[in-house]
Amino acid sequence: MPDPKNINLKRYDDGTPSIMRKTTVYTKLHFYRKSDVLVQLTKVFCERFLPKYGDRTVDQMVQAARSVKQNIAEGLTDGQTSFETEIKLLGIAKGSNQELLEDYHDYLKQHRLNDWSKAEQLRQRYDKLLAYCRTHNDLADYERFFYQWTDEEMANTAISLCHMVDKAMSTFMEKRDREFVEEGGVRERMTAARLDMRGTQKQIIARQEQEITALKARIASLEREIAVLRGGGAGETRGTGGSGGSRDSGGSRGSGDSRETGEIENKK
Questions:
Q1: Cα torsion at 39, 41, 47, 51 (round to 10°)?
Q2: Nearest CA among 128, 126, 187 for reference residue 159
Q3: Which end of the chain is less packed: N or C, by CB atoms within 10 Å?
Q4: Chain-centre distance of CA 113, in angstroms?
Q5: Is the four-CA dihedral 169, 171, 172, 176 of positive or negative sign?
Q6: How many other CB atoms are there within 10 angstroms of residue 129's CB atom?
Q7: 177 Ramachandran zone, left/alpha/beta (phi>0; psi -120 to 50)
Q8: C-alpha 253, offset from chain centre
């Protein structure tokens, strides 16, 4: 059972973990691009060198070539959520590629043409073909030759591409196999995502509790400061009231003295 902590989870912008695997852009993979070349090359090959009617080989070859390309695309798209589906469809693509390879070999045998990989006198030409196929992956690199090549040249080119697609797919599937063993499938990713989310929630709660404790301490401090300020204000109020009383008494005495002075002056 894979350790959920070792599963590499994709995350959304807000940090939430996702059970979806990282997207594989299959159109950038060399073996997918070569499979696209094989589809178009096979259609032209059948159009030029096989009977248009009465030969099931045409449909079989075109369908096999198409199956390689389509199952790679579908498998890697569905693989975001399911290792099982991805491996299954890549396996079908690999089988279809082998079927197409056999059809091209059969054509060379039936028409007594050279298989360049086995003809020593054509070794140099075969090596040049391999070098070209290794470094060229797109339809535009081959399409201009489709109506120039002989059937032997087209068949040997297709055979070389089939071998390269098969080898690249085998390497890719081995890598996927290791990823499945180490990380598991969608269920394991779901478990890992939930555990990760719980851990994140615990961290958030712990952080919030610390913030609440700090806020409570700050509030208590502010309340003490307010109490001190209120106590000082009350003392000042009492002091001010005593001074006013003295002034009032003094004022009364002042008024009395004035009246007494007036009475004395009247007697005089």
A1: -80
A2: 126
A3: C
A4: 49
A5: positive
A6: 19
A7: alpha
A8: 94
- Going by C-beta distance under 8 Å and a sequence separation of 6 or more, which residues neighbour residue 182? 2, 6
pTM exceeds 0.85 for this model: no
Digitized pLDDT (tens) for each residue of the chain, 268 residues in all? 455 555 665 666 656 665 566 778 999 999 999 999 999 999 999 999 999 877 899 999 999 999 999 999 999 998 877 888 899 999 999 999 999 999 999 999 999 999 999 999 999 999 999 999 999 999 999 999 999 999 999 999 999 999 999 999 999 999 988 877 777 655 665 665 566 666 555 666 777 778 888 888 889 899 888 988 888 765 555 555 554 444 444 444 444 555 554 554 444 4
Give whole-number Cα distances, 200 to 6, 15, 122, 156, 186, in Å: 16, 9, 64, 57, 21
Reported residue count of the chain is 268
